[in-house]
TrEMBL record:
Naturally occurring in which organism (per UniProt): Hypholoma sublateritium (strain FD-334 SS-4)
InterPro entries noted in UniProt: Adaptor_Cbl_N_dom_sf (IPR036537), MLKL-like_MCAfunc (IPR059179)
CDD domains for the chain: MLKL_NTD (cd21037)
Domain of life: Eukaryota
GO biological process per UniProt: cell surface receptor signaling pathway
Protein name: Uncharacterized protein
Length: 909
């Protein structure tokens, strides 16, 4: 079988599709050659030629077959490898040279010593194949840093050399020219040299470097290698174990398969040796795609540094859809550099309370730019809130804020992992876990604490913002063997903005209010004791039926006038049966503010019961008619200019009551009137609440409004006070103090004030923090409320001081108090005297005269009686009664007249 045929059987049989190997060489700097042809490596091509020749030897001499099979395995491994390696090449070259002499065996009689040499060759080749397999399995970083690898290759090369010499001797071949291959040294390539230099630079101990993740990472970066968690794992496992395992495996494969493999062209054999590793699938944590070690490479993975923002619908790292980063696929999550998928994972832990048990943390905020420096040590309980609890004790260390733009650290450690780290730290004394920035002015960091014997005994975390004098430093003691907190947290330094205890209480100015304080009670009760005024010819009584008599703006509100509604009962007061119906033909109204002498016409007067055509209305004697009406009373031009719309309140009569005179006119033009009154009922005024620390206000008497700001305490942690709805927290006050310390300005406008505007005019408020520079704290707030800047004249306002509640961290040391230098005050105000408004007058107080005797003339009645008497026929009973009553009246009148006539002296005489 020639090589092409074998190659075809190995790779081209259809069921296994082998992608072309991606080769990169560390000898020439990282060039990717996508080329399956072996010709680019002369060592490989000559090895294949030798293999080709050997296939016939193997068939003829079965005891040579293992060497032939192993060479095939080595060639396959090397072909699959991603990079050409000088040491592997060297070993393959030596083996190829050795085996190239095998065809001679076909021409000679094989004696026992030769058989022995062949057996040794087979053994040596097993070793070589096992070594190459173990070496190739190693990560590139590990391969270089495991400096002892080279010794293994040297030993192996030595064995090959010695076998080769023996073979040449037994075949009686004397080659003087090519012997340099047996005498030359195992090569040292650029990366091996770099590794040796690196180790030498860091103390010379390979062990110290191998266990120090940061050092390994540094080396990987320096050589542009991929660094991931498998690196540290591989570094701590011994390659000798791996070689040993491979050896055993190889022997098994050879024992079971040599015969058949020669027949089958090695297909299953080589596949078995290689398949497991080459085809193992991983899922990349950065891009979510599946990969194998074979398909992975320096640019295989593309991803975004930041997480997709579903709100703004883009990746904040680059604002573009195509990934902005390229790298190697990674099978395990890491914090070596930012990638989008990392952040939901860290947030899933840090954002919940049931995911971890925080042992200690430090945090400091820059009081100028709000940048936060922080670090923490916790026990990780679960990766996802409400998820399964971790079985193993796991330490979680975080430094900095996990965000794609800034440096951060978020890593976990089990007891076993801590053990590995201890080894490295003990040797290297490199205790730093992570630090966000090298400068001492602003940073966050975490580091291991070692005992004298070099054992990890705890974690020290520190954070400092540039605006703080000292850093926060805490130590969390850790028990290495159990990975648990082993004692109380030690605080070594307190950072942040710390205030001092004031040596004496602060004395504040009393509150000041300029302007009247209004009442929200009506000036007096509504008067309802107005009497009907009418003419004798129109015998009606008017009576208010609604309570209150007038309702203001129940349905409409209008800036120019006020609407009033009421109901009046109109009673026909003529005698029963008097046949004197009253017919109301018109309703009108006039109004007057109490204190004014004259009534003025209203803007509109409407009868509400029925349509306007309801009039005229006829009311029978002793009957009543309900009149529901609405009148519109115009406002004064000044009031109308304010355009105030109040519902259920009238704006016009807010200072003095209004009276409305309703006039009814009958069909003959006779009129009767009734006066109704409306007394303004103010809106309730805002008052100081029970839990208010202060309520700073002034009243505007013109529009009867109270302008005020509540100052309330806070109960939530970190919050200090609420002024006018704005919550001030400790951080905010610390920033204010920092600002004051820097600028020397001890009165700082908190910039939370507002200008409020509405129909009733504008007003504004503002609040200042007063800072005690000696005790480094805000000691009080000054709140000023005043009329708006656009008010024609400034007349009202108030100033009040409120003590600041205790907040933040305090140094337990008293210092003398120092008061702020204040400049903010009320503007100059114009004096204001509340006008005296008349609340009542007697203009509508009218006593109706004693009603005159019924106007029915006696003569007429007598005439009627006589007419009735003269008529024949029966008289109805009712009429008879009425006549009797009239008769009685007439008799009384006649008697009276007689008395009058006799008593009076005769004027005629
Ligand atoms: Zn991006
Ligand atoms: Zn990937």
């Amino acid at each position: 079988m020639d090589y092409q045929e074998m190659h075809h059987q190995l790779h081209g049989s259809g069921d296994v599709i082998v992608p072309p190997p991606v080769r990169s060489t560390s000898l020439t700097t990282a060039t990717n050659i996508v080329n399956p042809v072996v010709n680019d490596n002369p060592v490989m091509s000559s090895a294949m030629q030798v293999l080709d020749q050997l296939s016939s030897v193997g068939k003829a001499l079965p005891f040579v077959a293992p060497a032939f099979v192993i060479l095939k395995i080595i060639i396959d491994m090397e072909r699959r490898a991603q990079d050409v390696d000088a040491k592997c090449n060297d070993l393959l070259e030596r083996i190829t040279f050795m085996l190239s002499h095998m065809p001679v065996l076909l021409k000679i009689e094989i004696m026992a010593p030769t058989r022995k040499v062949i057996d040794r060759i087979n053994e040596t080749m097993k070793d070589a194949a096992s070594l190459i397999a173990a070496y190739r399995k190693q990560n590139r970083v590990v391969r270089r840093l495991s400096i002892s690898n080279r010794e293994k290759f040297m030993t192996c090369a030595e064995d090959v050399n010695s076998c080769c010499r023996d073979l040449l001797m037994s075949l009686q071949i004397h080659q003087s020219i090519q012997l340099d291959i047996l005498t030359r040294k195992v090569p040292l390539d650029e990366d091996d040299e770099a590794a040796e230099t690196f180790v030498a630079k860091h103390g010379g101990s390979v062990d110290a470097v191998m266990h120090d993740r940061e050092l390994v990472k540094e080396f990987a970066e320096q050589r542009h290698f991929v660094m991931d968690d498998s690196v540290m794992e591989q570094l701590s496992t011994n390659i000798a174990d791996s070689v040993q395992q491979n050896h055993i495996r190889l022997e098994g494969i050879l024992r079971d398969n040599v015969q058949s493999s020669i027949v089958d062209g090695l297909k299953s054999l080589a596949a078995e040796m290689l398949a497991a590793e080459a085809e193992q699938k991983f899922t990349c944590v950065q891009c979510d795609t599946q990969f194998t070690n074979y398909t992975n490479g320096p640019k295989a993975c593309s991803f975004h540094r930041a997480e997709y923002d579903s709100w703004t619908k883009h990746f904040p790292c680059c604002s573009a859809a195509p990934p902005c980063e390229f790298g190697t696929h990674r099978a395990k999550h890491h914090c070596d550099y930012p990638y989008g998928k990392f952040f939901p994972r860290s947030r899933g832990v840090l954002g919940y309370v049931d995911t971890m048990e925080e042992w200690s943390s430090v945090e400091d905020t820059n009081l100028e730019n709000d940048e936060v420096q922080k670090a923490s040590v916790s026990k990780l309980l679960r990766w996802v809130s409400r998820g399964d609890r971790l079985q193993e004790n796991t330490l979680l260390i975080t430094v900095g804020r996990a965000w794609y733009k800034n440096p951060y650290y978020f890593n976990t450690f089990t007891a076993k992992e801590m053990e590995t780290i201890t080894k490295s730290v003990r040797l290297s004394r490199r205790t730093l876990i992570f630090r966000t920035a090298p400068n001492d002015n602003e940073f966050a960091m975490a580091e291991w604490i070692l005992s004298i014997s070099g054992k990890i005994t705890g974690v020290r975390i520190a954070a400092k913002a540039a605006t703080s004098t000292n850093p926060y430093i805490r130590v969390c003691p850790i028990d290495l063997s159990t990975c648990t907190k082993s004692g109380d947290i030690l605080t070594l330094s307190e950072g942040g903005m710390r205030s001092y205890l004031p040596a004496s209480p602060y004395v504040l100015l009393p509150p000041l209010r300029i302007g009247p304080v209004l009442s929200d009670e009506p000036a007096r009760p509504v008067r309802t004791n107005f009497k009907t005024r009418t003419s004798p010819a129109l015998r009606v009584i008017l009576k208010t039926m609604s309570d209150p008599p007038l309702t203001a703006n129940p349905e409409f509100a209008n800036g120019r006038c006020d609407y009033y509604r009421g109901t009046v009962s109109v009673f026909n007061n003529n005698a029963p049966g008097s046949l004197n119906p009253v017919t109301i033909a018109g309703v009108s109204a006039a109004y007057r503010m109490v204190g004014n002498a004259e009534y003025a016409p209203v803007e509109q007067c409407k009868v509400l019961n029925g349509t306007d055509s309801a009039l005229p209305v006829t009311i029978e004697p002793r009957q009543a008619w309900q009149l529901a009406f609405e009148v519109a009373v115009p406002r004064t031009p000044a009031d109308a200019a304010l355009d105030v719309r109040w519902w259920n309140r009238a704006f016009g009569p807010r200072h003095r009551p209004v009276r409305i005179r309703i006039t009814l006119e009958d069909i003959e033009g006779e009129e009767c009137t009734l006066v109704l009154e409306h007394v303004f009922k103010p809106y309730p005024l805002t008052k100081r609440k029970d839990d208010d620390l202060a309520f700073v206000f002034f009243d505007d008497p013109n529009v009867l409004a109270r302008r005020g700001v509540h100052v309330q305490p806070c109960t939530s942690e970190g919050e200090v006070i609420v002024i006018g709805g704005t919550t001030l927290n400790t951080k905010r006050l610390e920033k204010t103090v920092y600002q004051a310390l820097k600028s020397g300005k001890t009165e700082v406008d908190l910039a939370i004030g507002r200008t409020m505007s509405g129909a009733e005019g504008t007003w504004e408020w503002a609040a200042w923090a007063l800072i005690d520079i000696s005790c480094r704290r805000v000691y009080a707030f000054k709140i000023i409320v005043q009329e708006g800047k656009d008010a024609p004249v400034q007349r009202f306002g108030a100033v009040e001081y409120v003590l600041c509640p205790a907040y933040g961290d305090t140094v337990n040391k008293p210092r003398p108090v120092s008061y702020a230098t204040e400049t903010a005050r009320l503007p100059p105000l114009e004096a204001y005297t509340l006008p005296e408004y008349p609340q009542d007058d007697a203009l509508d107080d009218f006593k109706p005269p004693v009603p005159p005797k019924p106007a029915t003339p006696v003569i007429e009645a007598a005439g009627l009686a006589s007419t009735l008497a003269m008529s024949a026929g029966p008289v109805p009973v009712e009429l008879t009664n009425r006549l009797a009553s009239i008769d009685a009246n007439l008799a009384r009148i006649a008697a009276a007249l007689e008395k009058l006539v006799t008593a009076a002296p005769s004027t005629k005489s």
